[in-house]
Amino acid sequence: QNSLKSLLGPLIEQVMEDSDLNMNIHPLEVYKAWISRTETETGEPSKLPYDVTPEQALKHKEVTDEIENTIKKLVKIIKSFQEKIIGTVDQMPYGIRYMAMCLRKNLKEKFPESSEEEILKAVGNLLYYRYMNPVITAPDSFEVIDLAAGSNMNNVQRRNLGSIAKILQHAASFKIFDSDARYLASLNSFIKTAYIKFMEFFDAASTITDIDEHFNMDEFSDVTMLNKPMIFISPSEISNTHQLLLDHQKQVTDTDEDPMNEVLASLGPVPEDEQMLGRQEHGVRTGSH
Fold first, then answer.
1. What's the rounded Cα separation, in Å, for the pair 197 and 82?
2. What is the pTM of this model?
3. N or C: which end of the chain has fewer CB within 10 A?
4. CA–CA distances in Å: residue 274 to residues 20, 23, 54, 245, 279
5. Helix segments in the chain, DSSP class H
6. Among 78, 60, 82, 81, CA closest to 70
């Protein structure tokens, strides 16, 4: 969370603070807004029909011109987001990069016929769509922005950030706009260029040293370590981890003699919440064994 706040927080706040920014590129909404402005400027009701299809709305030059101008602004902002993302790969938490490395390795083993590009797309789904995209679309939910007490994000701010996140996702997965959204076709050249940059980023982000080397640890570290590490973990996280180990015990343990089997057997099933709370009263000591 802190990493995402320092990475994306300033750009998100910049978008939110621009009261004149409106990234609306939907033909119907642009069309209706244009009619509303015309009626306000002339003081007379418009002679154009209010309820039209997107295709009918796009027949008006005023609508297509406004969409194109908005797309230019949108691309400029999206470039700043992507440059920030791909330029800070070394600042990403080791944990998420390690997950990306393991995903990449396991996909290669399970699908040896898949191309490197296909593998990196899957890695990108983790790094961008699962990790970064939610923060851009709902920054208030992840506390990466500072909102005044009692204030909330408005619809325009959410739509602007949603538009940014949508195009970034198209670029990360190389999803170009086809005939169903031909009014966004001008974005395709940008998406192709941005996709190449994202692939390089996903490659770099999922290429790291293993845990032992990264933390400079081996089988003797626990014995020789003077200051034992302290771990903060909630009862729910303990229960979830316990359940995950039980669900994937065969994948986690190498052989029947693996010490983890003995540990899980002694622990038994995941305790109920009441049992966990009862154990809390006596305290929980965590070690590095």
1. 9
2. 0.77
3. C
4. 53, 49, 56, 21, 9
5. 2-17, 27-42, 54-57, 61-86, 94-110, 116-124, 133-137, 155-173, 188-205, 211-214, 221-224, 235-247, 249-252, 259-267, 273-280
6. 78
